[in-house]
Amino acid sequence: MSQWEVRMSNSKGLPYFFNKDTKESFWDAPSELSEEQVKSLPGADYLTGAGKAHAGQVRASHLLVKHQGSRRPASWKEENITRTKEEAIAILREYQAQISGSSKKFAELATVHSDCSSHTNGGDLGWFGRGQMQKPFEDAAYGLEVGKISDVISSDSGVHLVLRTG
């Protein structure tokens, strides 16, 4: 039998089914699984508690600026991102100065400027646990106190400011 698990979509805040063998994901339960099998999948508690924290999880928002070295140098704003990593960091530093510790200003800037689809939610990525995010991002989120904002963090996606919200 395939290796299914339930994961939480960071962009939609909804659970989905992920096959670790084929790397496919689906919103609906795989037809080959019975209701009991679905309930016993790793992460099945997401099916009943969508949007709620589970033990060991944190909630964070981010403001992402991609650069030409990002794993996918394109976003909802730009089809082909050509800025250098140094330019992306400089842009984030400008946002950081404007934010000045304000979570409200953070969300405003993330809505307009973040290269992530989470921009529609003010950068909110929802609740996530260890192993669900890229390591540098995860380390930053878990290392912050609630309400605090990180310095610039670099990951395969680009450079971020991270706001711990829960």
UniProtKB/TrEMBL annotation:
Catalytic activity: [protein]-peptidylproline (omega=180) = [protein]-peptidylproline (omega=0)
Enzyme class: isomerase
Coiled coil (residue ranges): none
This protein's UniProt keywords: Isomerase, Rotamase
SUPFAM superfamilies named in the record: FKBP-like, WW domain
A Pfam family per the record: Rotamase
Recorded GO CC terms: cytosol; nucleus
Entry annotated with the keyword Isomerase: yes
WW domain ranges (all copies): 1-32
Record-level GO BP terms: positive regulation of transcription initiation by RNA polymerase II
PROSITE patterns in alphabetical order: PPIC_PPIASE_1, PPIC_PPIASE_2, WW_DOMAIN_2
GO MF terms, alphabetically ordered: peptidyl-prolyl cis-trans isomerase activity
UniProt-recorded name of the protein: Peptidyl-prolyl cis-trans isomerase
Organism this protein belongs to: Hypholoma sublateritium (strain FD-334 SS-4)
